[in-house]
């Protein structure tokens, strides 16, 4: 019992301790979620003045709003800050641990394997990282797991299908990517468990009710496809962001061939260009480098010099795959394999080669497979525990695993926090300095850009005086076509400071990052 209590304490610390400082600064998406929750709480309207919307315009990406509404009670009780904005995602991470245990037990009816699955979920780097930020995808993952569990449960308790439908439908109101990932999971479940699902012929009322529930809950999202509120999907779509005909023309020009003959139409066409691009992106999700060495290209998603899994996890995954293939459980094997293989598709259809936010669902079957491998490893040790060699291998493996895990703790909590550029560090610090340094200036010009700095001022700038707030202007400053005004203050990233030979200025103040490097300067031109 003491060991379980100690484990629970560690689990809570890894997800809840220091949410306000690690990650070290809110992302703009987190700030948008928090501010819109606060705005709905205090005025009933979002940042654009819309009354209780289900889809939030935000950065023109029309965020599904469920995470925002789930955050409102937390902000109402505890106030608005980094912790309260991130808290529901951390709670979702805790729920995920129990759901993985329940799903694994539904699949294998083995509490030991289920306990291993819960353990690896609890301490998985990927699950910890995505639980510590306000990631709608993390809450969507939790709802998906609820849906899977109650779907499997419905074979013995048919009314559980209604609960499953509710949770699957809620994913659409939580995260954009669920429009693909949830549908894929439903296809996998109904395909693998077709015979069990056919038994619902005796419960047609439940099926009809489930479809009606799904339609009612998902209706706002379905409607977004027809009222121009799916711009986020369009902007990231692979199809909308590569030019296959340009590539085809370059291939044809190498041999001076016409693009109208049969061979060229067969081998050099837009369909094959898209297919190759999608397959390459899909395959990148399963490489050693992606899973265990460096992760995806976004430093928000993995610690430095690591993937979403510890390198030693790979051994358990391999053992688990062997165990799964040998098991005479074709449905469980088919479900986990299809779940794993299809989960990267939402990420593979976008312009980035790998994005763990969009493929977060794939980590769960990997963890369940890893738990099978760990169970097999421990069973082999138990059978051969009298062998000194096997005992030594077991002890060394434990030491290596613990050492690898401490490396993750160090990389994430000590070093990832210094990756300030990944977390848009500095805007909160900027706002805290503005009141004291800007009283004598006519206007305060802040460099606008992809960070969407306005949202940080809406969130953190509530304590600015009305006079100061009226002075703030967000500018896209191009020094080739921009003449600064002498009575104004300019707050710029260090990388956008103008050439001193062309423009004379004085540095009024600076903002430094956690490595004591100057990232923003307050400039007065002379």
Task: Describe the structure in your own words.
The relative contact order is 0.09. The protein is an alpha/beta fold. It has helices spanning 2-16, 28-43, 66-78, 82-108, 111-123, 125-131, 136-153, 160-172, 178-192, 194-198, 204-224, 231-236, 244-255, 262-267, 270-284, 288-293, 313-326, 330-342, 345-348, 363-383, 388-415, 427-437, 453-460, 466-471, and strands at residues 55-56, 63-64, 444-447, 472-475, 489-493, 505-512, 518-525. Among the domains are: 239-267, no CATH class; 426-525. β6 and β7 form a beta hairpin. The protein is globular and about 80 Å long.
What is the overall pLDDT average?
86
Biggest sheet: strand arrangement: 4-3-5-7-6
DSSP helix fraction? 55-70%
Number of helices: 24
- Rg from C-alpha positions? 26 Å
Percentage of residues in DSSP E strands: 5-15%
- Major sheet details: 5 strands, mixed
Shape: globular
- Tell me the number of strands: 7
The termini sit apart by 70 Å
Summing up helix and strand content along with how strands pair, one would put the structural category as alpha/beta
* Residue windows where pLDDT falls under 50 for at least 5 positions: none
Question: Which short descriptors sum up this protein?
Answer:
globular; five-stranded mixed sheet; alpha/beta; two-stranded antiparallel ribbon; single chain; 526 residues
